[in-house]
Specification:
By secondary structure, the protein is mainly α. The chain has helices at about 15-25, 30-40, 45-50, 55-60, 90-110, 110-120, and strands spanning about 65, 75. It has a two-stranded antiparallel sheet with strand order 1-2. A hairpin with a 7-residue loop joins strand 1 and strand 2. The termini are far apart. The protein binds iron/sulfur cluster. Iron/sulfur cluster binds near residues 72 and 94.
Length: about 120
Amino acid sequence: MEQIADEQINESDSMSMLQEINEKSIDPASQIILHKAEQEGIETAWDRYEKQIPQCSFGQLGICCRNCNMGQCRIDPFGEATEKGICGATADIIVARNLLRTIAAGAAAHSDHARGCSANL
Ligand code: SF4
């Protein structure tokens, strides 16, 4: 409970709510924001995450592919059913391809920051 600034803690706050906030983030600034959001009923990424539970096991393993219109394809992680996508991609290929596409998309999404920095220089 010490992680949230004392002035942010209202006497009416329940211990369980503070415990829940501390479990969401160890960052004191984030805890203050989460506390304020909770008080004002503002939805956060943590709330949206909890609404997604249980998440898709295929997606968590990275063995679901939607890269083309022949899929979506899912690889059986136990090797008892499908071992390849329609195009012939194995689990290793699908995982590697998904990872690279995710990295490329993330980097592209933040390239504007680099452009802003270079413009300032
Ligand atoms: S595994 Fe191959 S066929 Fe299936 S969705 Fe991905 S790219 Fe398309």
